[in-house]
Amino acid sequence: MRSFLLSVPIICLTAGSTYAQTATRARQASSSSINNPIAFALAPPKASCQAHPTGQSVPSGQVVADDLGVARFHAPPAATWGSHLTLDCIAPADGATSSVDVDLTQDLSFQIPAIEATKPVPTIKHGLPGDVSQYSRQQLTTMGYPPAPPTNSASFSLWKQLVTSDVTVPHVEPVAVMDSFNITKTWTNWGGGELEQPGVTYEYVWSAFYVPTITDIDINTYTSMWVGMGGDNDYSGNCFLLQAGVELDDDPVVYNAWIEYAPNGQITLSGAPVSPGDQMFVECWPSDSGGTAGVYSLYGTCWLYDPGKWLQEETIYGPWGNTDCPSNSMFSGRTAEFIIEAKPPGWPDSLTDYGSAWMTGAAQDTAGNDHDFGTDNYNIIETYDRFGEQEQSASVGYDVYGNFDQTNWSFVYTF
Question: CB under 8 Å to 398, separation ≥6 — which residues?
């Protein structure tokens, strides 16, 4: 088992653990096309595209183009999607709309576009000078940096390293898995912590965590470690969950960084490699197409930072018009989540054996107030073992089998 130590506030999440309160959360599920070949289409650079069968509105999923305008997605199942797709795209630069047709019966649709020969080399983002704590949120975002987390949070030191160092920004190739989570089901497949304070609308969420080491047991397993907002959204049928994190799979062993504005589907960030032991910084907020914050904006922005390796900012279109959501759905900001997630019970993929994992948690509301597990009401969410079986519930309260440290706001469990 690997052990890591982070400063507070910390949530420690471990496969097979028990938690003080069982919670049922919605997660969209269907059979995934993750192993299907990757199809390509040309769209406006950095465009967010809604893909659907030509002539039909459902099923649908989100595809994101890279900075060259190349959109990539795993071909969805022909039985439900057919072989001809349309991508309705919105260009973030000016909001212009366009449509692209993709014929999945043609070999050309699976050939890497010639424009990829001009693939940009990684760029260097230079650090800010002076006392970075003096920069306002608007100044930071205008200069192309993420807003600062609370200075007393464990995320702050990583944020400070991000904005004061010269960091590599790779040419990332987003790859969509459009059909992964398109049918709304209700399962208890989350473990971790969730901030929820009456009358509070969370606008920013931050986390720092270490990527745990997978124990290869030659069984198809799935785990995601993520931070997000809006996952417990009773007003919108659990839609409008903005989240980003790292996927940890076994058989084969896979580590991937990703972003998602559920239920639009996961976007894997190919070209941003993740390894066991990496310390990740993740920050998300609802935004416009340029990354400016706003709770009721059309987009969501997330920054992912792997110190010493890479930095990536992604802005994606929200699930407006997604038929899996109620017609009046919108982002609520009622909750902020810090989660390890398994596939729902009954799936052939379940929780990966990852030993132990630690995750910090901090958030900020629309009034600029800071929040963490020492200030807010919170829910402790139970998780499952690697076969998707629910573990025995722990007692409700501060002392969870003696492992909850009220002073340090930490949780300690073992796989």
Answer: 404, 406
Cβ atoms of 338 and 190 within 8 Å: the answer is: no
Task: Note down the domain range covering 44.
Answer: 35-117
Tell whether 84 and 193 lie within a shared domain. no
> Which pLDDT band, with edges at 50, 70 and 90, does 227 fall under?
very high
Neighbours of 22 (CB within 10 A): 17
225 and 196, same domain (yes or no): yes
pLDDT category at 193 given cuts 50, 70, 90 is confident
**Number of domains observed in the structure of the chain:** 2
Tell me the C-alpha distance between 374 and 9, whole Å.
Answer: 7
Q: What's this model's pTM, rounded to 2 decimal places? A: 0.83
Assigned domain for 43 exists:
yes
Return the closest-CA partner of residue 110 out of 161, 203, 40.
40
Q: Which residue in 390, 408, 330, 332 sits closest to 365, CA to CA? A: 332
Same domain, 276 and 322: yes
Rounded distance between C-alpha atoms, residue 219 and residue 410, angstroms: 31
Distance CA 131, CA 128 (A): 9
Length of the chain, in residues: 415
**Is there a domain that residue 175 lies in?**
no
Structural tokens at position 273: 């490699």
Helix H or strand E encompassing 140: helix 137-142
- Residue 214 CB contacts under 8 Å (≥ 6 apart), including other chains: 248, 249, 250, 253, 255, 276, 352, 353, 354
**Mean pLDDT score, 321-335:** 81
Mark whether 335 and 274 lie in a shared domain.
Answer: yes
Do 65 and 8 lie in one domain? The reply is no
Contact predicate 65/89, CB 8 Å: yes
- Is there a single domain that holds both residue 277 and residue 227? yes
